[in-house]
């Protein structure tokens, strides 16, 4: 049964005067409960807000975590991933990087399947010229393509099943 964040974890608490980090990089993370005990959502929301997430976004993330057991958060400014992970771990939340692979070796993935460029492109719904360009370094896969290639590398049958549906 779904319940609101308030019903599950108590009354509303205002977070005021949050000291935000002064520099860092954007990070997308998957949030998961670290234990069976309820996470300290107010403290976790504070940790997210310190990394320049809005209070509304932090509340949505904590609500999703409470309702589904997972949440995806995009933090605009993270000073250090280890510090963020430690702050969230102290709140009973595990933070896992959630992003497309930075690079993929298209040729190695294709060779593991035992297919020619033409057969690889045909089997996975790609253009053969695009596969050639990726392998020869003339172009690089965009984010969606890197995700597709990562899925092909781990579970080519899943991609084939989707294409055959």
UniProtKB/TrEMBL annotation:
An annotated Gene Ontology molecular function: DNA binding
Start and end residues of each HTH cro/C1-type domain: 106-142
Pfam families associated with the record: HTH_3
Protein name: DNA-binding transcriptional regulator YiaG, contains XRE-type HTH domain
Transmembrane residue ranges: none
Lineage: Bacteria, Pseudomonadati, Pseudomonadota, Alphaproteobacteria, Rhodospirillales
CDD domains: HTH_XRE (cd00093)
Keywords: DNA-binding, Transcription, Transcription regulation
InterPro entries, per the entry: Cro/C1-type_HTH (IPR001387), HTH-type_reg/antitoxin (IPR052359), Lambda_DNA-bd_dom_sf (IPR010982)
């Amino acid at each position: 049964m779904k319940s609101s964040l308030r019903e599950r974890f108590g009354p509303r608490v205002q977070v005021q005067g949050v000291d935000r980090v002064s520099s860092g990089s954007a990070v997308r993370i998957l949030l998961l409960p670290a234990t069976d005990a309820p996470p300290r959502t107010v403290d976790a929301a504070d940790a997210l807000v310190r990394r320049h997430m809005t209070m509304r976004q932090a509340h949505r993330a904590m609500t999703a975590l409470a309702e589904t057991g997972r949440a995806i958060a995009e933090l605009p400014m993270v000073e250090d991933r280890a510090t963020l992970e430690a702050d969230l771990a102290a709140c009973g939340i595990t933070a896992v990087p959630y992003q497309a692979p930075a690079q993929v070796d298209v040729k190695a993935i294709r060779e593991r399947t035992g297919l020619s460029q033409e057969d690889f492109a045909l089997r996975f719904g790609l253009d053969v010229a695009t596969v050639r360009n990726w392998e020869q370094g003339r172009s690089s896969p965009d984010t969606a393509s890197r995700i597709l290639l990562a899925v092909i590398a781990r579970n080519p049958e899943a991609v084939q099943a989707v294409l055959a549906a």
